[in-house]
Amino acid sequence: MPLVVTVPRNGSALAHAGPYASALNFMSRKQTAVQRQLRRSGLAGYEPLTQATLMAVAHQAPEGSAVLDVGAHIGLYSGLIDAVYGRRLSVHAFEPAPETSRICREIRDANGLGFELIRSAVADTPGSAELYLSLKAESSHSLNAGHRRHTESVTVPVTTLDEFSQGRPELRPHLIKIDVETLEGQVLAGGMETVRQHRPWIVLEILPSSDHESLARTLDTITELGYGLHPIQAESPWTARSADNYRTHVSSSARDWLLAPEALTYDFHHAMRTWLRAILECDERTNLELPGGSTFPQGWNASYSLPTAPRKRSFKSLVRGQRRPAPAS
Question: How many domains does the chain have?
Fold first, then answer.
């Protein structure tokens, strides 16, 4: 049964980047944990704070710069950024798992999106590695054999952020999202030349079970380059943490961070809150679920074209909204 999810309507984005599609077809309501969560609660129920942060950073990106989505899964974030800002930015999604990368490609093509899909893992050394397929949910696949219980693995190619960027000298990374199930430190370690040269904004998932020895070393280097480490949260302004004490602020319910190459301004926080309000309007009531084989209604993804002021909405729903995909049964 096809699942169509409403895209947030943001007047500032319309004025800045032009018209964009009002909905995205996510193909199925139950293939993956992400699709099941979108069916239950729309975009409002899937990491709305992280979505809003990514969109706010993409909003401020210079035209012609790039977004790198490491651990893209079915391409939710790549799809949203490309749908809204794809005329200004290039989006590159890295997803090594064969099945989720296949779904990602189908979603991209079904919506006429233009982001690049790279079927590769990202780590600190190029080559190949075993990707362990989690029994819990496909969103927990990892190069770390000890992360989740598994019964099988698949050999996948591995690149590094530096290898990818240096192979494309025209690429100017402005935003890097990293979600790699405990090996964040290795991904960052393999991208330090890219960080030094381009100073991208980095949205980083940090799990309690991450390799904190490796991660702490890399974060120490990043803070020496002038980056601030900010837990992504509802209240603003955000307080920067140090590489020495970041771990005390990591939990299963608050695990996404913004690594900012400059001080966070009022304009950034305003853009983030504006996106957040728009995202919270896109709950399960705005989804469109169609019986299998049925025809999509005319204008199902008609473009937003005129800026409109978002309706004010309480942030109390964030506690309910900041939900993660349920484990596969």
Answer: 1
